[in-house]
Write a structure and sequence with these properties.
Layout (H helix, E strand, L loop, with lengths): L2 E2 L3 E4 L6 H8 L2 H4 L10 H13 L6 E9 L5 E9 L5 E8 L8 H15 L4 E7 L3 H9 L3 E12 L2 E11 L9
Parallel strand pairs: 5-6
Antiparallel strand pairs: 1-2, 2-3, 3-4, 4-5, 6-8, 7-8
The structure holds coenzyme A (COA).
């Protein structure tokens, strides 16, 4: 286990996660505002899991945490961290299975990731999301991110140009709910 929370275990991906990853990332409701087109085939999920499993959270670049629910041992989502090469900034992203949304799991997982990043001395964590992605914007707001700006007609998504929201959380703004 890499990060622990009351209900979740954030760990490295493993080959057995591929079917669950393929299932939730194939869901149109999960993929809608993301950079991939569903379905995510089993082969594609196998490759993704292999790639995720090779990552190192302490090195620059993307690392994806597998988020497992302790109660049933199921993979419920993933949180990605893109650590800048200066190791002082990072970007985060996340995806949770639709039937595991609305339980506060994304918030719990993201909070654990932020605690780890700021605990390692990061100065700034950022995230961006499609302006129509209300759930994602709400999550970022809940954990303390501040809206930094809006890029009009920034991304070509689902056959249209969409606005993009930029969120930032600085180390001195971060309030750990467990503290
Ligand atoms: C964005 C996303 C991760 C948000 O997930 P989420 O489950 O809504 O977020 P949270 O973990 O903060 O859960 C909040 C909800 O859980 C409810 N909840 C239930 N039990 C809770 C508990 N014990 N603690 C906290 N919240 C709880 C809250 O009331 C809230 O409900 P509401 O949405 O009706 O207000 C999710 O919608 C998702 O994966 N979307 C698809 C992928 C995506 O768009 N990713 C972002 C790309 S930028």
């Amino acid at each position: 286990m890499l990060l622990d929370t009351p209900r979740l275990c954030l760990r490295r991906f493993r080959p057995a996660d591929a079917p669950a990853l393929a299932a939730y990332r194939s869901d149109e409701a999960v993929a809608h505002f993301q950079g991939w087109t569903p379905p995510v085939t089993r082969n594609a999920a196998d490759s993704l899991v292999r790639e995720f499993a090779r990552g190192d959270p302490s090195r620059p670049g993307w690392f994806h945490y597998a988020v497992e629910l302790k109660a049933d041992g199921c993979l419920v989502g993933d949180v990605g961290v893109n650590l800048h090469r200066n190791r002082k900034q990072a970007e985060v992203g996340y995806s949770f299975a639709v039937d595991r949304q609305g339980h506060g799991y994304a918030r719990e997982a993201l909070t654990a990731v932020l605690r780890d990043l700021f605990g390692r001395g990061l100065h700034r964590v950022s995230a961006d999301c499609d302006a129509r992605n209300v759930r994602s914007a709400r999550l970022l707001d809940r954990v303390g991110f501040r809206l930094e700006g809006r890029r009009p007609a920034y991304a070509w998504l689902a056959s249209e140009w969409t606005d993009d929201l930029l969120f930032t959380l600085l180390a001195d703004q971060w309030k750990d709910p467990a503290a």
